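Morning run. Coffee first, then this:
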Amino acid sequence: MRAIVVFDGDCGLCNGFVAWLLRRDRDGRFFIAGSAGDAGRAVLASAGLGVHVAASTIVVWDGSEALTRTDALIRIAHGLPWPWRLAGTMRWAPRSLRDRVYDAVARRRPRRPAEDPACGTPPRDLVGLWRSRLASVDDVAALASPT
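And here it is:
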């Protein structure tokens, strides 16, 4: 199943995570959308989340369910090949504990300006792949439509 990962394109840690994800998502299960762009805002609206949410957490939305913080990371891990799928075992830890760790990292994350606030700054070696995985408003509508 495909999903859209919404991230803060102005955050160096978020951009780094998305670059990491794209390098490992060989099957193309995840689209990406910067929270400041039209697609990112459309995902957040479709999921019933405020735009402020993506300023402090990654959101994963599959058209029916939006996951944030460590639940989003677990969903991403399940969509990746071995050995990354193993990271999904963190679901066994209490959510309150794992989300406290997530929040502590999020408070200390590096921030840097992005050239394109709608989608962040891709590393040079990933520009083509990054652009090909950018979600559009049409992708959001397609995921939101019942199949």
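The chain has a mean pLDDT of 86. Good start to the day.
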